[in-house]
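Look over both lines before class:
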Amino acid sequence: AARLPPPPPGGKGGGGGVLRREGKPDRSSTELVDMNSAADVIPLEPGWEKMRGGIDKFTAIMEGGFRESFPLAMHSELYTCCYVMCTQKAPHNWADELYKRYGTMYEQQLEQTVLPAIKAKHGTEMLREFARRWKNHKLLVRQMWKLFVYLDRYYIKKISALPLKAVGVQKFEQVVFNQVKEEVRTGVLQLIEKEREGDMVDRDLLKQVVDVFVEIGDWRPLFPTRVGEEIGDIGQARLNTYVKELETQLLADTSAFYARESSSWIGTDSCPEYMKKAENRLQQEVALVAAYLHSSTEEKLLKEVETQLLANHQSALLDKEETGCRALLREEKTDDLKRMYKLFQRLPNSVTCGLQPISQIVREHIVDVGMSHVRKEEAEKDHSMYAQQLIDLHDQYHAMVQGPFGSNTLFQKVLKEAFEVFVNKDIGQTSTAELLSTFCDNIMKTGGDKFEGEIDTVLDKIVMLFSYLSDKDMFAEFYRKQLSKRLLLNRSASDDDERSLITKLKYRCGAQFTSKLEGMLTDMNVSKDSQNNFAAWMRTSEVNLGIECAVTVLTTGFWPTYKVDEVALPAELLRGIDNFTRYYESRTSHRKLKWIHTLGTCVLTGRFDQKPIELVISTYQACILMLFNQQEEYTTADISSTTKLPMDALMKYMQTLALSKYQILTKSPKGKEIGETDVFTFNRAFTDRQRKIKMSLLVTKVSQDEKLSTKQTVDEDRKHAVEASIVRVMKARKTMAHQQLVLEVSQQLMKLFRPDPKVIKNRIESLISREYLERDKDNQGVYKYLA
């Protein structure tokens, strides 16, 4: 009885049905069954002759363009024949011989038919024939695998030989590919260069040919040579043929092509024109890869293009005098800057390559523009708008960093560095810290009316400028004094805005930085409650002062130190002070009130001939005016002795009362200077359109003396801060060298100010003299902490 094989791949039926057919039986099939039935063996030569006949039949159909299909019955017969020849017992098992002849069959077919057909053609037609022959060969390999599949499933696994499909691909590579690969590669590269030059090419043909280089490697069986070999390594190895035989030369030709092209562009094109061409070329290369190259080539190909078009000419491109990076920044060409950023972002960053050279040019440009503002402002007398100019300048370049430069951290860094250069330049004798604080003071007084309700945005911008200051403590001291005047003179437009700015500063510099400012606001809220309680106490105690009296109680540590002038107050004010002192002492213990009239205000009614007018003046001005309720005229010396005000301070107050816009007093003799013997009388003829006028209080202006006082206060605070930092560091380290100590202390204090190394050295000496530190006996440059 004949052995019945498993059904062939793609065949129908099962068991003995493979060998049966409806109608007239096939003669060869009948003979095969009879032979097996009789001898139970298929000899090698007759069996191979039958297999060869089927192979030739399929080859003829394939060469004819598949105008007819391969007979299913023949497929089944050939599969069965191979199966029987491979499963016969030795010495009639022909599996080994069939495997050898399987490979020889490919060699003969490729040498006799395929290779001559390809070599007979040239140029594009050769490529077309090469692609067609590879396509047919794949079909042949697939069909032969179906016939000889038993070998693949059992015999090859047993002896660890090359799989059948791999044998087919290997033979094509050895017989055909290796013979024509140079011509094919040349043809492919020529077509690619033609497309780069603008000619139309057959992309489908290129895709088919390039795929041959890829598929020959992909079909090759690659077994890991070591345990744990990565799958990615195997995938890369499968592209070895493509990389070695095509990609390497493609990359070299690409580099040469763009080297030539970029050399011609750089001499004639402007920077924007060059970048547009480079951008277009990069897009074309991406499209080229997508159309017919392997995806793994894209990164390597673009690197070659970027090197030739961008990296090799970056310096010359950026430094073009009229169209380079500096010119684009001057003319605010945002589209071109954006294109420049996107192009050079592709390159690795270094001093001469990528985004770093661009960022340095941006930094230099911003510094130049900022310093020009500084020089221009130094020539002006009024610096009130300087802070606004800095904000506008920052808005301009911040928008540039956010827009064309994509918020890149490198450009954010250079923006910060550039502003730190000129923001910390003094304008004449005035520091930017003071000007910025004064700008905040004006905004807080007006409530942001000029900013159309966008006060919070303006405050954010102020805090951003503040972050660039190296002397943040100087800003804090000026701001504290100005805040105190706004609060005590009731000049602040909005408590919410005051708290908002302090919160933003706290977020930037920490709670310690704003603790005094927050304490001042808290004092004002507590004083409002205290004032209500005082009014209730007076009603309960049946005290009638005859005037409205409001007292603000301040915590000493929060508020600036004010100069206290001994002044003889009018009886009306003394009654208010005495009663509030009684009230306060009844509510608290262990606290002492110290009365400061410097920032006090009074509202007096002046009874002039035409009409009474309310005058909003300072406490000291009120003390002077109320003297004229007692007598008609006083000399300057009389006023000084009666009020006990120092003569230099009195002169200033008399200027505001007799020689200013509102001349409440009349001076004799007339003149702009005030002498000790000058006589002052009440000006009954004075009048004004308004019934209530606010006179100059002097205290609202920042005098030179106050500036000097503020700087002295800051210097003293810095000494304490430096000493505290030294002690903290030494307490943690115990022993430290001088340079290391100076460096670490500087780093700790950098958030508030830049400490002078000389100051640090002096503070170290001071701590040594007070026995907090001592020098090492063996090394005078090393300090030890004394617990």
Notes: The chain is about 65% helix and 5% strand. Strands lie at 601-607, 612-618, 633-635, 665-668, 679-682, 692-694, 735-737, 773-775, 782-785. The CA atoms of residues 54 and 74 lie 7 Å apart. Confidence is low (pLDDT under 50) at residues 11-39, 221-234.
